[in-house]
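User: My collaborator sent over this chain with a note saying "see what the structure looks like." That's all I know about it. Can you take a look?
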Amino acid sequence: MTKVTLMDVSKILSNGQRKHAYNANAVLRAASLRARQFAKIRQVGDALFDAGYISLDEQAKALGLSRSTTWTILRANHKNSGLSAGIISRMLSAPDLPAPVRLKLYEYVEEKNAGLYGDDRIRVRKFAARLSATLDDGGRGDSS
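Assistant: Without extra context I'll predict from the sequence alone. Here is the result:
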């Protein structure tokens, strides 16, 4: 597991989370869980690179996302909640998605559903429901 210092906490947690985190151990635990999440997302980028998708254009096409969304995800500039169910669904629906990348995404989903990224049970349930709904509609994200 990645070692996280108190300085890293301010980069990982939002102001609201810092304000309500009274216990230093709780703050470090939350930061450690978010670091784990960021590491898994970086593994998605590494798997893309290892599969031969070097340029941003190639990576975006393989993931089925726009260049800007791909850049944000792979550079770990995404919001603290990690990858949304809709984004994951779009990636899993991409026809050119390499198998190792698909595997990393499934691992991410399993770990997020297990609460390993610090989300509470309600947020995990909502994530699972949204992912299921978007996968059921072919990854379009419209549940109509």
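A starting point for your reply to your collaborator: The chain has eight helices and no strands.
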